[in-house]
Amino acid sequence: MSQEGKPFLLQMSADHMLAQAREMTGIDIIDEAAVEPFRILHAAYNTDACLHEQGAVAIEKKLLRLLCNRLRMQRDFAQHPEIAEIQIQSPTFVYGQLRSGTTKIQKLLAASGDFHYLPFWWTYNPSLLTGSMTESPQPRIEEADAFIRWFDSMSPDAKLGHRFQTFEPEEESLLLEHSLVSGVFIAFNTMSSYMQWFATQNPTMTVEYLRDMLKYLQWQSGENKPWVLKSPLWCGLEPFIIDVFPDARLLMTHRTPHKTIPSLFRLLDTFHTPFSDKPPEYEILRMGLAMGMEQHLKVRQSRPDIKILDIPYNEVTGPSEDIATKIYHFCGMPLREEALQNIRNWEAANPIHKLGAFTYDQADYQLTQDLINQDFASYLEFLNSTFPAISNAQ
User: Rounded to 5 degrees, what angle do the CA atoms 324, 241, 117 make?
Assistant: First the structure.
């Protein structure tokens, strides 16, 4: 907040930033698809987010970065039509409630050596700076690394819940910030007006943007492995994934919301801190998560053709070798001894609470057993019938 108690505003207007991105990149492309969502996003940062001074500076840098990466990607698609011809084969989507173990599943699969994955620096700067395949990625890597150091200095506790690391696997949620049509923005700021607009958009657009970004990154890497992706945002959107990726493999983790909801709220506290003094809107978030889970359960009933491998939390926290065997079987992939050893090595190097315990308490967020039982009644019934071993202790 400013000295007058008012939030800091972005210094540049939305239209100025769109023009500034063209000047910064030297790419004279009018990014027409960006105009509407960017203006709405920009307005939400100025009206809803209540940015503090350092947050306003950081968000302005972020928005320019997203716009520049979009322009560079469009330049490269235009100059290299072969990118659009790349096929994304059998991507694996790891999803579920936030704080239900999706990160561990993603990272052990990434460690196997059998999958393409998104290191943080790729999600932060996916586009070539010059358009040349021979350019060094080092400037993009260094910029991502500098952001992580800044973020950790602003919110030291965040890494206890979710640690950003330059070369480690990261969620495609951050990659999808470049689409400008994604719910991920609410993870770092209150964005009520943007989210109201976002709710009116067709999710197919976002999934198609992900497909195109994966094509672009696969072209940069020159490798042809299946992707392992991970984002809790896909819950309830399975039909849209399958429409764009018909051979996608869906892995869903499960944990009682009595644990996931307060853990998530604590994490969002730490994610908001670098940008704003305004706390997350917990009740709106809880209701949104409950609605997403209701939508997911409707998908299960209406689309039995969509196959999902359900993974309870006790299996997530169990031996990685066991869950890897189950996942590989579901995906129809042979589990090579080398891949299995890579997974064992990853597990040995990454014990739970490696950096310290991530602590939280329901009472901090006015949560009660009855409130969660009411909001997530259908999902709790699903858990009780599908995984009787899941309890409030997990």
Answer: 45
Q: Are strands 228-230 and 249-254 parallel, antiparallel or unpaired?
A: unpaired
- Kind of pairing, strands 228-230 and 92-96? parallel
CA distance 70 to 75: 9
**Tokens representing residue 354 in the block:** 């490696």
Distance of alpha carbon 29 from alpha carbon 75, whole angstroms: 8
What mean pLDDT, rounded, does the chain reach? 94
Q: Residues 52, 361, 267, CA angle at the centre, nearest 5°?
A: 40
Could you tell me if 41 and 197 are in contact, meaning their C-beta atoms sit under 8 angstroms apart?
no
Cα atoms in the Cβ-side hemisphere of radius 13 Å centred on 277? 9
Higher pLDDT, 143 or 97: 143
**CATH, range 88-386:** 3.40.50.300
* Per-residue tokens: 289: 């998560």
Residue 279 in tokens: 């706390």
Distance between CA atoms of residues 383 and 299, nearest Å: 16
Q: How many other CB atoms are found less than 10 A from the CB of residue 288?
A: 15
- Give me the pLDDT at residue 393, please: 44
- 114 phi and psi, to 5 degrees? -95, -5
Going by C-beta distance under 8 Å and a sequence separation of 6 or more, which residues neighbour residue 325? 335
Q: What is the pLDDT of residues 265-300, one digit of tens each?
A: 999 999 999 999 999 999 999 999 999 999 999 999
Per-residue confidence (pLDDT) for residue 2, from 0 to 100: 46
Residue 34's pLDDT band (cuts 50, 70, 90): very high
Structural tokens at position 113: 């050596």
